[in-house]
TrEMBL record:
Protein name as catalogued: Phosphate ABC transporter, ATP-binding protein
Record keywords: ATP-binding, Hydrolase, Nucleotide-binding, Transport
A GO biological process held by the record: phosphate ion transmembrane transport
Domain ABC transporter residue range list: 22-261
Keyword Nucleotide-binding: yes
EC top class named in words: hydrolase
PROSITE patterns listed in its UniProt record: ABC_TRANSPORTER_1 (PS00211), ABC_TRANSPORTER_2 (PS50893)
Organism: Coleofasciculus chthonoplastes PCC 7420
Lineage: Bacteria, Bacillati, Cyanobacteriota, Cyanophyceae, Coleofasciculales
Length: 275
């Protein structure tokens, strides 16, 4: 696959060569016989934030969970088509899903710290991976990178569950980056946070994209315009059997999706006319 595929750069208003970290090719995603998402072909650029938007049920979470093989845990799940991670077929038999999840971390809608100390939340993954470096340093660096260090440095031995929701979410982000991933997937990471915590996480995302490639599912269109370089709009069409089938309508620089969309459906969605 072409790892240096042209991806439009939203910040510079012109095209520049940007590496692709994840790519799908006519990807169909099934739960049993139900085709939940059909025919998605897209490239996720490195060191950018890519947002998935669209009405409920169009398959945003289903797709993002394909990127770290989290859907493997669902018996009825299977795909047709391809998902590539850095030129490697992510669903090839030789690929270890555990290693995939180490390289491609995930932060969920509801903060889910382990019922352990703040310190151990961060150190856990490193210990499991037989980390040979200085754990104290790793914990501090990860908490600093997640903009949480100053708030927790004097209580590293308290339980992570005792933090506020916004702090818990930053702890989960710190935990995700402590294992040195390449990509961080975020499925509605601010959905349960107040506006101030939301802005903190958004600021943090801007910092993190220097080092990581980020994909975020969001229902909040202002959030997509604030954080995302690229935005993919998904929609769902009714099927003959009365279900809904998700598909990618339009994928472009965020500015184009919101200010100059090519598709009528995108225009209607971003202007709040449906969804
Ligand atoms: N584990 C599952 N088993 C069967 N069907 C599922 C499963 N998870 C999701 N689906 C179905 O797949 C479709 C897409 O769901 P998904 O949660 O990915 O959409 P979404 O766009 O993320 O929705 P929302 O914005 O409401 O979170 C829906 O029809 C949903 O019912």
């Amino acid at each position: 696959m072409e790892s240096n595929q042209k991806v439009a750069s939203p910040n510079q208003g012109n095209e520049q060569s940007t590496e692709t970290v994840l790519r799908t090719e006519t990807l169909d995603i099934y739960y049993g016989k139900f085709l939940a998402v059909k025919g998605v072909s897209m490239a996720i650029p490195k060191n950018r934030i890519t947002a998935f938007i669209g009405p409920s049920g169009c398959g945003k979470s289903t797709l993002i969970r394909c990127f770290n093989r989290l859907n493997d845990l669902i018996d009825s799940f299977h795909i047709e088509g391809k998902v590539y991670y850095r030129q490697k077929d992510l669903y090839d038999k030789s690929v270890d899903p555990v290693e995939v999840r180490r390289r491609i971390g995930m932060v969920f809608q509801k903060p889910n710290p382990f019922p352990k100390t703040i310190y151990d939340n961060i150190a856990y993954g490193a210990r499991v991976n037989n980390y040979k470096g200085d754990l104290d340093e790793l914990v501090e660096n990860s908490l600093r990178a997640a903009a949480l260090w100053d708030e927790v440095k004097d209580k590293l031995k308290t339980n992570g569950m005792s933090l506020s929701g916004g702090q818990q979410q930053r702890l989960c982000i710190a935990r995700a980056i402590a294992i040195n991933p390449d990509v961080v997937l975020m499925d509605e990471p601010c959905a349960s946070l107040d506006p101030i915590s939301t802005l903190k996480v958004e600021d943090l995302m801007h910092e993190l994209k220097q080092k990581y490639s980020i994909v975020i599912v969001t229902h909040n269109m202002q959030q997509a315009t604030r954080v995302a370089d690229m935005t993919a709009f998904f929609n769902a069409r009714a099927t003959e059997k009365g279900g809904k089938q998700g598909y990618l309508v339009e994928y472009d620089e965020t500015e184009n999706i919101f200010q100059n969309p090519k598709e009528e459906a995108t225009k209607d969605y971003v202007s709040g006319r449906f969804g």
